[in-house]
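SmpA / OmlA family protein
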Amino acid sequence: MKKLACAIVVTAAALTLAGCASSGNQSLKNETEYTVSAKITEGVTTQAEVREMFGSPMETSFTDGGSEIWEYSLADMKSDVVNFIPVVNLFGSSASGTKKDLTVLFDENDVVHRYAMSSSDVSTKTGLFK
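Predicted structure tokens:
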């Protein structure tokens, strides 16, 4: 009986751990549009301060005028219940979660000119679940 209980606990733990995936900049995990607006002030916050708060950007680009743009993103996904149903999971998989994006435009003095933070619910589906 102890072996069965142990097997159930191990299986449950494995399913729980296997059901989560996160990719991107982890500093955005607990951020919202409100918390970012409390940290970044247009015309005041510097590039160094943004790097200190959020780390290095995932992507850097430049406008035609030479202004630098930093982009941060985080996809925090969890497997949907359908993935754990025997036989049904052979026909596809599904995950849902939140995607957060932070884009920061700096002026020629490396000061934040504009920024935008967004958070949206997302889902991915494969196989017959598309």
